Amino acid sequence: MNDNGALEDYILKHIDPEGDYLYRLYRATNIQLLRGRMASGHLQGRLLKMLVRMIRPKNILEVGTFSGYSAICMAEGLEDGGRVYTFEINDEQEDFTRPWIEGADVADKISFIIGDAITEAPRLGIDFDMVFIDGDKRTYVPTYEMAMKVTRPGGFILADNTLWDGHVVDHDYDRDAQTQGIERFNDHVAADSRVEKVILPLRDGLTIMRKKD
Predict the structure, then answer these.
(1) CA atoms of 133 and 208, how far apart (whole Å)
(2) Cα 125 to Cα 167: distance, rounded to the nearest angstrom
(3) Sequential pLDDT tens for the chain (213 residues)
(4) Cα separation of 163 and 68, whole Å?
């Protein structure tokens, strides 16, 4: 029988460390905020940084800043001149998140914006090379459609929580609005010929999509 906790500990001991600042941010997130596990955390944070290194985007759009952990991780992977534009729709999050972003070594590579990315991100007039969707699960489909419009051909779109703690295959689980939103999104992307797609069973599920040229 697999011990998932022991396996995760083993993985974390054999990858790059998250660093003291991110460690303190993740700890503060879990102590001070409700649903602290929404933050990406060590493993996913290192994956996001690695993906940025591989894709080499100039402009990244993030939908759902939460505590700023993932934005900082992606900014760590950017080359000079690159930028993360991260949107948080919940204005009550700003007092916690903005100081952590502004205190990071990569603060000059992050634009933290309070507002609805679905309406506000297109107004930036930017062709994004990479988009990370990690906001309200109920609006994943319209968020994805917005992302398709602002992502350049050949660009990448990532969506978090797409296995929803396994609830997508647990038919005894109550289909609340968040779960239904994830299921609609997964079905929508599966049927979308505009993108190549793969789901990684990492943490809560991470879907990686490439917009076809």
Answers:
(1) 10
(2) 37
(3) 457 789 989 999 999 999 999 999 999 999 999 877 778 899 999 999 999 999 999 999 999 999 999 999 999 999 999 999 999 999 999 999 999 999 999 999 999 999 999 999 999 999 999 999 999 999 999 999 999 999 999 999 999 999 998 888 887 777 789 999 999 999 999 999 999 999 999 888 999 999 999
(4) 22
- Other CB atoms within a 10 A radius of the CB of residue 152 amount to 16
Tell me the H-state helices in the chain. Answer: 4-13, 20-32, 41-55, 69-77, 94-102, 117-120, 140-150, 177-190
CA distance 66 to 195: 27
Q: How is 91-109 classified by DSSP, letter by letter?
A: GGGHHHHHHHHHTSTTGGG
CA distance 75 to 56: 11
Answer whether 46's CB lies under 8 Å from 16's CB.
Answer: yes
Q: Which are the contacts of 3, defined by CB distance < 8 A and separation ≥ 6? A: none
Q: What 3-state DSSP class applies to 43?
A: helix
Query: Would the CA dihedral through 77, 199, 30, 119 be positive or negative?
Result: positive
Length of the chain: 213
Beta bridge partners of 85: 61, 111
